[in-house]
Amino acid sequence: MIISYLKDVMRDTGKFKYIISVGGLCVLNIIICLQPYFLSKLVNNEVNYKYLLFFLISLLIPALINFIKNDLVQATRKSSKRILFLFLESRGYEYYNDYKSSTLQSLMSEISFVCRNLVQELLPSIVKVAVTVLFYTSLISGYSLEIGILYLLVCLIYMVLSAILTQKNRNDIKKALDSTVEVNKSIDDFFKNLDTVFSYLSFKHELEFFDTRLTCEKNIYYKIQKQIHLVYLLQQVILVFLIGSILYIGLFNFSSFKQQNLEFILILIYSVLNLSNFGTDFLGGVELKDRLEAALSKLQYGNNRDIIKQNHRLIYDGLDVIFDNISYCYKKLDNEVQVLKDLSCRFEYGKLTALIGDNGSGKSTVLKLIADFLIPDKGIIYQPLKTKVLYINQDSVLFNRSLLDNLGYPHTELTSDQLETLYSLAKKLEIDNIISPHTDLNVEITGEMTKSFSGGEKQKILILRALISDFNIILFDEITSGLDIKSSSTFYQLIKETVSNKVVICITHRKEELQYFDEIISLNI
């Protein structure tokens, strides 16, 4: 799962970019590794401007490495989120029944953060350690092959011990991720329920609720970080002991060669400096890996879109939408609820059809089955050729974009005929104060779009989007719930004018609205 996701991110970012970046990091780290050589030459030669210049240039390398890292990090930031967005787009409609928007946002942020840290911290650390060990092994072997091999073995032993010491309770990572999700859910709940909080003046209650989750998050992360620091301390003790042993053996062998002694000592000092963070970086890498695995697992990344079901949809040469013995079970987590059982009905072309029934009778499910959001468990849905279905419900929200983007969605431009129709319809729906030839529809509303208009205005904007569209099947799920009687009447009159070449179905709970419909289908037994 992790490998599959990281491969997708690399493919989207561009493998060539990674190759160039890693190659650049290798070259720059080799220059840094030459510092002991330059220093030993400077000490043993009174004046040597060439080595001095090389040494000073090498001191600038860490700053240059940041440019490579930043370029790769920002490319990874984009790709990590884009791959997740593509994955979520590919999910079936039922997938979202198990998630809150705040949970998905938290998981996406967590995964993107982990990917950036892998590129920002872990990848450069791996390159630095690999270059340090291999380059210094080569240099030391030039003086003594035995000491060079010993140096390589000591470095490998240190890294293996670091890997062994990282074995810890992986559940802590999952608990930490869960605690962060809970904190984000608390924030999301607060802002979504501002009216309730202000009405009850429950600010203290919300703060206590939030503090409880913050404390839980703090304690879990403190425990994880404390364990990392303890292991790091032990790794440093091991590293110092091993390097000290090599230093003792090396000085005994090079005692008559002042230049070699100095260079050897400097190499070991630089080795300690360059390898000292390996333990922390490795532990951090394991933590990042666990966090990435936990987050991807929660998203079910890599799973097939849905269990493949038998095809229950047939195209025929008629114009009506026909249900033939349709059954559907609503699934959430491990529970199943029978919503529809052996439903047969016909939604006629050119007629305005009302769909009525008690709460929970499956009205919205019927519309979502027609829209192909859901797949029936049994039965056949017959639909016309070249079907284009638009589904709008009372909870549909506007995009945080301009009015033009919302009205013409997914297109960003409207033809002159569409604009003329739009202005005429807006006047009839009495929102020409918002939408008229005198208003700039391209201006993006400041703040959240959903809070810029009343509930009724939002419903009317959604209705306008449907009326100027070219969909031949339009499904309204209680779209008039936010409208007054006059606006509802206008809505049905406008729908009547366009229904002649469409299948239009409306769910309504208002008995007084049934007079506007040509057909009424009840789901009550």
Keywords, separated by commas or semicolons:
525 residues, alpha/beta, ABC transporter transmembrane region fold, Rossmann fold, 2 domains, 5-stranded parallel beta sheet, 4-stranded mixed beta sheet, 17 helices, ABC1_TM_dom
Q: Could you write a compact summary of the structure shown?
A:
Residues 93-252 form the ABC transmembrane type-1 domain. The protein is an alpha/beta fold and 525 residues long. Helices cover 61% and strands 11% of the residues.
Describe this structure in words.
The chain has 525 residues and is α/β, with parallel strands linked by helices. The chain is 61% helix and 11% strand. The protein is built from 17 helices and nine strands. The protein has helices at residues 2-13, 15-33, 35-44, 49-59, 61-89, 101-143, 145-165, 171-192, 194-200, 203-254, 258-275, 278-299, 363-370, 403-407, 416-428, 455-467, 485-498, and strands at residues 313-316, 321-332, 335-347, 352-356, 378-384, 389-393, 473-477, 503-507, 519-522. A five-stranded parallel β-sheet has the order 6-7-8-4-9, with helices on both faces. α17 links the parallel β7 and β8 (503-507). It is elongated. The mean pLDDT is 84.
